[in-house]
Amino acid sequence: MEEALVLQALSPLLQRYRSENSAQSELKVKIFTGNITEKHRMALESVALSVGFPRGAVEHVAAEDKDNLLGTADLVIYYSCLEEQLFPSVLVQAMSLEKLVIAPDLAIIRKHINDGVNGLLFPRKNIGMLAQVLLRAVSNSKVSLSGQKIASAGKAHAKNLMASETIEGYAMLLKNVVKLPTDALSPLTADEIPLALKQEWKWHLFDDVKHLHRVNTSLSGYKILQKLEQEWHSNQMENSSLSTKNINDAFSAIAWEEQRVNEVMDIKRKMEEDELKDRNDQPHGTWEEVYRNVKRVERLKNELHERDDKELERTGQPLCIYEPFFGEGTWPFLHQSSLYRGVGLSSKGRRPGADDIDASSRLPLLNNVYYRDILGEFGAFFALANRIDRIHKNSWIGFQSWRATARKANLSTNAESAILEAIQSQKHRDSFYFWVRMDQDPRNHANKDFWSFCDVINAGNCRLAVLEAFQRMYGVHLDRDLDTLLHMPNDGDTWSVMQSWVLPTRSFLEFVMFSRMFVDALDAQMYDKHHQTGHCILSLHKDQHCYSRLLELIVNVWAFHSARRMVYVNPATGQMQEQHHLSGRRGQMSVQFFSYATLKSMDEELAEEFDLDHPDRRWLWPQTGEVFWQGLYERERSMRQHEKERRKQQSREKIQRIKSRARQKTLGKYIKPPPDDTVVSNDTTTVDL
C-alpha cells in the first residue's frame, strides 16, 4: 500500500522526464522492502503500469543488495504511515553516503532531520506534497544544487547521529545493570553528563588507527606472514575435507537398522518394568506408625542433610575465612578449598553446588536493596554474627574480599599456612591479622596518613561523620578535633583496607557489637537526605553506597583503640610484621570507649529500650542482629518456669479426675458352671442289712 502511494506521488516527475522512447523512462525507481511475495510483486507492477511507468522502470531490490542500491541512488525516499520508535537505519546509511533524504514528518524523524537543512520532509497524511518536494529537489535529470548542499549537510550530521541517545542509553545501563564495587566512583547519570560530551563522538581518538592497515602492508614481514597464513589455510581445508570423508565412511558402516531395533527393545523393556513395579503390593502401616515417622522426620529434618568433604574438613580446623560476594560476576574470584566459604549477600546469584551461606536468610535486613548496597560486606559480618554458634564453630574467623583476589592481593598457600601455624601456636595471642595494606592501595597515591586517606575517599567529610557518630553513640559532646579523641598515629606503619583480615571469633563478636551501634549512628545521621535525594556527604555525586567506604576502615580504629595486636601478613610469602607495636601505644588509645564492659552495657541498654519501650521510630540497630539483655533472659526463664508449673498442674488435675471418677456398682455375681466331664448325682442309695 505504501509503495503504491509513493508511485502515484512520482507521476508528475514521470511526465517531466519522459524519454523519447515511450517504452523507456529516464526515471528509474528501485524499491527496497523486506520479505516480498510474488503476489505483492505482481500487484505493485500493475500499479506502476497504471500510473504510467513503462515496464522495467520499477523493480524490487533484495535485502542483500541494499548497500549497492544506496551507493548508486541519486536520492532516497523513505515512507511510513505509522509512528516508529527508532530512527530508521536505512536513513542513517543514506545520509552517511551523502544521499539526499526525503522522509515523512514522523516524530522520531523530525527529531534528527531539519526540513531543508539536512534533509527534506513532507506531511505524512498528505502524500501529494511529495511530488512538490521532488520537483524542488530534482533539476535537469539530477539532484538540484540546493539538494546537493542538503545532502552534504546530512552527511556531516550523520557522523554524530544518535550519539546522544547511545551515550544516555549506556549511562542508564551502567546505573541499572552494572553493580559497581563500593570503592569505585559512580558514573554520571544521563542528566548529569555535559551536553558537549553528548552531542558528538570523539573522532579524534581514532586518528592514530586510520592508517593501521596501510602501515601493516608496508612492513617487510607482513607479506611473509600473509603467505604463511594462506598455506596454513589451504592445509586446513585439505585436512577438513579428508576428516569429513573419514567420518562419512565410519557412519556408513553402522548398521542403522540394528541400532533402531535395539532402541525399540530398550523402550519396551523399560515400560514393562514400570508396569510391574506399579502392580507390586505396597505394604501399608498403621496410622500410629505414620504419625511416629512424621514426628521423627520433623525432629531430625535439620540433621538429615549429608555433610560434604569440605564441611567435614572445616569442622576440624581452627580458622574459616569467609568471602562475601554479590552476583555471578564475582564467582571467578572465590576460592574452592575448605579453608574458605562463600557468603552470598543476595538469595540470587549463588553458586550451584557450593556450600555458600545465604546472608539474606540469616539477616532479613539484607533483603532491603538500600541497606544491602550501603552496608556492602558489613552485611555479611552482621549476618554471620547473628546466632553465630549455629553456623560457625571455629575458634578463629576471617574475611577476604573478592576484590583482593581480583587485584592479586589474596593469601597464597604459604601465607595461609603461616597464619594457621601462628594461630595454633598462639604466637601473637588475641591479634588482628591483615594482608591488604593501605599504603599500597591505588587510591592512596600520596601515601597519606589514616584520617587524610579516609577524607580523600569520602569527599573530605570522614572525620566529621565519625565525630558526629561517636557523639550519638556515647551521648557526649566532643571537640571538633577528632584526632584528640581517636588518634591514629602516622608512625611509618600501615593499616588494613578492603576488609581482608583474621581475628578470634570472640573478638569478632565484640567488633560486631561496636559496629552495630556505630552503623546505627551513621544511619540516623544520613538516612533521610540520602534516601530522599541520593546525595550523601561522603560522596561528591549520587552514590548508593554512601558510608560503605568509611566502614571499610573502621576496623582499624576498633583494633587500635581496643588494644589488639595488629600484624601484617605478606600475602605472597607469609612473613609477619607487627604494626603499631602495643608497647608504644600507651597514652594514645581511647580504651574507655572500646572496652568490652562499656560496649556490653551499651548493648544491653539498647536491648532493654527496644524490649520494654517498643519505640515506633525508624531504628536500624534492632535489625542488624540479636536483641538480648539480662531482663529478657530472666523473663524467658520465668516463662519457662510458669509453663512447667502449668504442665504439672494439668497432670495433677488429670490424676485427680481419674481418681474421683464415678464407678458403677456390681449388678450381680457370676457363678462359673462346673466342667462338662464332672457328674454330680443327687440320688439316694438304700442298703439292706
UniProtKB/TrEMBL annotation:
One of its GO terms (molecular function) is glycosyltransferase activity. Residues 60-142 form the Glycosyl transferase family domain. Pfam families: Glycos_transf_1 (PF00534). Coiled coil: none annotated. Residues 657-666 have a biased composition (Basic residues). The keyword DNA repair does not apply. This is Glycosyl transferase family 1 protein. It comes from Zea mays (Maize).
